[in-house]
Write a structure and sequence with these properties.
With 199 residues, this protein is an alpha/beta fold. It contains five helices and seven strands; from the N terminus they run αβββαβαβαββα. A seven-stranded mixed sheet has the order 2-1-5-4-3-6-7. Strand 4, helix 3 and strand 5 form a beta-alpha-beta unit. The chain is globular and about 70 Å long.
Length: 199
């Protein structure tokens, strides 16, 4: 190939790379605009909607670590009703609802019920512990899936996604997006699935 031809070929390749970069950038901006539109149109945290399935559904027995670095699975919580919240410290709505989950745990936490706030932060326990300390969340145990595999295995389309699990570890229903978990109507919804306490 002659030198002028080589220069011409390089110039063409650079132009094509530049066009490809612009296309990728344009697609990214479009995708982000769609996500923004979805967040603006979905119900707000104050509009809590929970529709249980006609019958409980089995779910994957995902693995994660607790605050002591011990391996845990959802099977460890069998016998309790569990509110499984998938979240991350970099997710704005997740950060906003975390104190309400903490208050829900304070209100209903017992041998019959637990809020399992499962972080998918790649920063692991350090990132989660630092954030929870910063916002003074004290009643939620630390659970981390740094691989973020739980997100896919549980079919979460985004975060936060929250699953209500029965005593057998089956999914009763889910809430996609944030909620104010300490609101009276939300607490009443969860209490329907707990055993009646003696007066």
């Amino acid at each position: 190939m002659h030198m002028p031809d080589l220069r011409h070929a390089i110039a063409n390749r650079q132009a094509q790379s530049s066009k490809a970069g612009l296309v990728v950038f344009g697609v990214s901006v479009f995708a982000l605009s769609l996500v923004g539109a979805w967040f603006s149109l979905r119900p707000s945290a104050t509009q809590f909607t929970f529709t249980p399935y006609s019958s409980p559904r089995p779910i994957a027995n995902v693995e994660f670590e607790d605050g002591n670095g011990q391996k845990r699975t959802l099977a460890d919580f069998k016998g309790k009703v569990v509110l499984l919240n998938i979240w991350a410290t970099w997710c704005g709505p997740c950060r906003e609802e975390m104190p309400t989950l903490d208050r829900l745990q304070q209100r209903l936490g017992s041998t019959d019920f637990e809020v399992v706030a499962l972080s998918i932060d790649r920063g692991g326990q350090a990132a989660v512990r630092s954030f929870l300390d910063h916002i003074k969340v004290q009643r939620l145990a630390i659970y981390v899936d740094a691989s973020a595999e739980a997100h896919a295995k549980l079919g979460a389309v985004g975060i936060p996604t929250t699953l209500l699990l029965d005593r057998e570890g089956r999914e009763i229903g889910r809430v996609v997006g944030p909620a104010e978990w300490d609101r009276p109507e939300v607490i009443a919804t969860i209490q329907r699935y707990l055993p009646a306490r003696p007066p």
